[in-house]
Design brief:
Shape: globular
CATH superfamily: Response regulator
Helix content: 25-40%
Strand content: 5-15%
CATH architecture: 3-Layer(aba) Sandwich
Strand order of the largest sheet: 2-1-3-4
Number of domains: 1
CATH class: Alpha Beta
Number of strands: 4
């Protein structure tokens, strides 16, 4: 998670042996920030790099309820300042995971070359379940090959099964639902891409429920 400067997010700047994943939402204040934090913990020590960005101008903090709930999970988002995705300079990312079909449409409209490596988070979790990667393959090259025939209707309109709700003005309960939802999706993704690592530790309130 970023603190301080909020230059636009462009190329990841990592080699071919590291899988780069960018999470994108509207403002980079809620959903993509928490997805990045969960993924960084879940994939810790593995050759993956995660960042997050929004589609509007950066410079915004995480809302207080988001900071509170993130702390319950052991994440410090208090110093996060939102950043915007440089939508014409994202081809270097191996996978781009959005929070809604609308976000996917905006990215592909800005640069059609990003398709088919752009999914919503729920779409990618389902797609990996149906297309488990082969061992010893470069994730980007494998996705470009396996997902080449994905129907572009996957980004048309909205779909409750594909979109992750934005809790920005909601009470803590909605943020807790968000973190639980994202954790579930990222665990499914990791189960296919990094099956031998541990799951994210749940906060005490979640373990009791």
């Amino acid at each position: 998670m970023q603190g301080g400067a909020y230059d636009d997010v462009g190329v990841p700047g990592v080699g071919r042996d590291v899988t780069s994943v960018l999470f994108v939402c509207t403002a980079n204040q809620c959903r993509s920030v928490l997805a990045e934090a969960i993924a960084q913990r879940r994939f810790a020590g593995l050759p993956f790099v995660f960042e997050s960005a929004g589609l509007i101008e950066g410079g915004r903090p995480v809302p207080p309820n988001g900071v509170l709930v993130a702390q319950e999970w052991g994440f410090d988002t208090s110093r996060h300042i939102s950043r915007r995705a440089d939508v014409r300079n994202l081809r270097g990312w191996d996978v781009i995971l959005t929070m809604s079909r609308r976000h996917t449409r905006e990215l592909v409209a800005a640069d059609s070359e990003l398709w088919p490596r752009v999914f919503t988070v729920p779409q990618f979790a389902r797609w990996l379940d149906e297309h488990p990667p082969r061992r010893h393959v470069l994730i980007r090259e494998w996705i470009e090959q396996e997902a080449a025939d994905r129907p572009r209707s996957d980004m048309i309109g909205s779909n409750i099964d594909d979109d992750v709700a934005d809790p920005i003005d909601d009470p803590p309960e909605a943020w807790r639902d968000l973190v639980g939802e994202l954790n579930g999706y990222i665990e499914r993704i990791a189960g296919n891409l990094a099956p031998r690592t541990r799951n994210v530790s749940h906060p005490a309130w979640a373990r009791r429920s």
